[in-house]
Design a protein that fits this description.
By secondary structure, the protein is of the alpha/beta class. The chain folds into two domains: 87 residues, Leucine Dehydrogenase, chain A, domain 1 (Rossmann fold), CATH 3.40.50.10860; 123 residues, Rossmann fold, CATH 3.40.50.720. Helices cover 42% and strands 16% of the residues. The strands form three sheets. A six-stranded parallel β-sheet has the order 1-11-8-7-5-6. Strands 3-2-4 form a three-stranded parallel β-sheet, with helices on both faces. Helix 6 crosses helix 10. The longest helix has 21 residues. The N and C termini lie far apart (48 Å).
Amino acid sequence: MTEILKGAPVAASIIEKAARKTERLKEKGIVATLAVVRFGSREDDLAYERGIRKSAERAGISVSLYEMPENAEQREAEALIARLNSCSEIHGILIFKPLPPGIDEKGLQSILSPEKDIDGITDAASASLYSGDGRYAIPCTARACIEMLRHYNIGISGKNAVVIGRSPVIGKPVSLLLLKENATVTICHSKTESLSQICRGAAILIACSGKAEMITKEFMNEKQTIIDVGINFDMDGNMVGDVRFKDADGFVYAAAPVPGGVGTVTTAVLMDNLAEAAMRSAK
């Protein structure tokens, strides 16, 4: 019988950990504060913001919103980020994406302070992840995958792990995190030959290709643990992952569903990254 790796208990545990950190900061008169930078009022951004505020409240974190118009100019956006960088009461900055056409994402990333980058998007954060020095925040979704495996006592060390996807946001960072946990890691992508055969030999399969339900039974084995990171929508508008879950359920050892899996954990990790940033600032 397949163990379903639900995200809710993992997220609750991480939020509780973050709350203990922010409580210690409050004893020193410090309120851990997140700055949310949002362009316009897209409904999906507003929904994401509501979710962040809910998680932040549970973690003892204050959220300050900085809303800019969708037609904002690059210099205006950069001026805002520079101002937040220099504000001692702000401990982390989260820039909602996708950005409007007039805003250069790399331009904003280049001026974002690594100390306040709680989503691990700056070059300095990437270098920190590569070196393993733990100086800056780890990308939230990548870390959420590892937190899921740890919470459910899925052994990583010595295991053959396959990551489908090589993006700098998920594929590459989660591969480095798996290596840090002593897994033997294979990174696959759209050009990989014999993809299903490679995946079938994995003890741990991380699916982050961005292709709806591309992972079918031929990619799986009975002892496998699958972490599905995909967020896609089928013809009926239902959210689905990169894995055809009905193929995994009842066949593989364990699987994280979509929705209700890693996505639930990602926001909790964001809160813990913020709490960590506030603690580093306090030192």
